[in-house]
Every structure is written in structure tokens, then in C-alpha cells.
Specification:
By secondary structure, the chain is an all-alpha fold. The protein contains six helices and no strands. It starts with 9 loop residues before the first helix and ends with a helix.
């Protein structure tokens, strides 16, 4: 895990970060394998962002927020954003007229997305 990390003690920090993320994921119901994968990906991205990794991808370093700052902002959005049902519920909360006859694209437009 600490391979390629700088000798300045940050490898211990990353090991603690890895364990914390893994344990949190397992507490939320992720399998051990999935929890390890999530922790490793997060820690590797943080290492790349801070210059501790020997190499890094554009997606690792190009994001303006770290994974911990982002805190799952992108989760559950998928490739096509919220589902029609999710958009409909939001339109219902905002009391948008005609929402029951709208398709997904129309709901997006009515919600200003």
C-alpha cells in the first residue's frame, strides 16, 4: 500500500486514511472486497493529487475537490442524471403544473436543469 509514497511520513497517514475509509464502507454495508476497493481508489487519488504518486491520471489531478471534500457529491447520479421519477418528485415538491404529462426531458427543463 505504501509503495511509491514519500518518506515524509505521509504513508502512515495514507494507511490510516485507507483503514478509516474501508471501515466506514463496511459499516455502511459494503462487502469487504468492495470496501477495500473504495478505500484504495480514494487513497490512490489523494496520493496523486498531493504529488506522492509516481504517476497520476488527468482525472486524479484535474478535479478541483478532493474525494473527502466532495463527499459523494457525484454518487447516485449515473450517466444520465436523476431518473424520471426523481425529477417528477422534485417537480411535485415545487408544484410545477402539468408535471404528470411531462417526459424526462420536459421535467428537466421545467426544473431548470
Amino acid at each position: 500500500m505504501a509503495a511509491g509514497a514519500s518518506p515524509s511520513g505521509s504513508s502512515r497517514k495514507r494507511e490510516r486514511q485507507y483503514e478509516h475509509i474501508k471501515e466506514s464502507a463496511e459499516e455502511r454495508g459494503a462487502s469487504e472486497g468492495r470496501a477495500k476497493e473504495m478505500a484504495a481508489r480514494t487513497v490512490n487519488k489523494e496520493r496523486a493529487r498531493s504529488g506522492e504518486a509516481k504517476s497520476s491520471s488527468k482525472t486524479s489531478t484535474g478535479d478541483s475537490k478532493s474525494a473527502s471534500q466532495r463527499g459523494g457529491e457525484r454518487s447516485h447520479r449515473g450517466a444520465q442524471g436523476p431518473t424520471k421519477d426523481q425529477l417528477y418528485e422534485e417537480a411535485k415538491k415545487k408544484n410545477i403544473d402539468g408535471r404528470s404529462n411531462m417526459n424526462k426531458q420536459q421535467l428537466r427543463q421545467a426544473l431548470g436543469r
